[in-house]
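Incident review: delayed structure delivery

Summary: a single-chain prediction request sat in the queue longer than the usual turnaround. Root cause was a stuck worker, restarted by the on-call engineer. No data loss occurred. The affected request and its eventual output are reproduced below so the record is complete for anyone auditing the incident later.

Affected input:
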Amino acid sequence: MEKTKIGVLVGPTASGKTALSVEIAARMDAEIISADSIQLYKGFDIGSAKPTLQERRGIKHHLIDVYEPVEQNASVARFQTLAQQAIADISSRGKFPLVVGGTGLYVNALTYPLSFTGAASDHELRANLAETEAQSPGSLYKLLKELDPKSAARLHPNDLKRIIRAVEVVKLTGKAIDEFGGDFENKKNEEIPYDVKLIALTMPRELLYARIEQRVDDMIRIGLIDEVKRLKALGVTADMPVMQGLGYKQLYAFLDGACKLDEAIAAIKLETRHFAKRQLTWFKRDKRIVWFDVTQYEGREALAEAAVCALEGGDHEQTH
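Output delivered after worker restart:
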């Protein structure tokens, strides 16, 4: 059975994914599927850099404004289901599905077979653990060191699949995964139903950090504080997973009187830089990805043409 062709565009925050994805979609008769854990929520617009209708330029976008923030929680498992449905829908109409976003776990949910075997299993628990990690990278490894230090010692901090599995087993059984034979592996050799081409954006670190600083300033200028006020008034609380998103968490603390505005803005910039660094580390591990240094192209159109060539299976010299 022939696999459905899909494209995936990833990269760190503020690298220009949104604008480039629209250029690519226009050239490939594509529709865009957002792989962003915050853009799924209604009302989380400015802080998630959700593309406006004007920025979408008539290109249909999927998995944006899906959830009511007070009533529903996103999860990796739910994203996977919704994205698979969107891919089937887009392909059935003869268009090209283009997945775009910076949430690495969401991208992996579509491009790897994320199933687990072994001692005990709880799909919803695993999805919740993955979502926790998506919102607060590094938190699960820290938890594993507390729950099962032996497994933590032999796992790389970036080996998320096995970290999630080890935490899942401890939480379900109260025992370390070693007591069940250390069963981390997916033994079914499952395949995904897609023929995937992955591309990513990069640029010199100092340029990326300057863009992040400018983006945060722009978000404040166009109304991010008022956006957080509205969400707070709707009943979105500081402890909800969606409020852990960059910008939202810090400004919520400011509105609660826990810090000054300039302190909140400085924290947003610092944590966004750290997040971008983690995103780069995450995506650099994936050897399937073709990288594009945006500074090597004379404008977005030239970059879009090269990206389309890579997504269509043409040759491209990787830039790191």
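Verification: The domain at 115-180 is CATH 1.10.20.140 (Histone, subunit A).
Action items: add queue-age alerting; document worker restart procedure.
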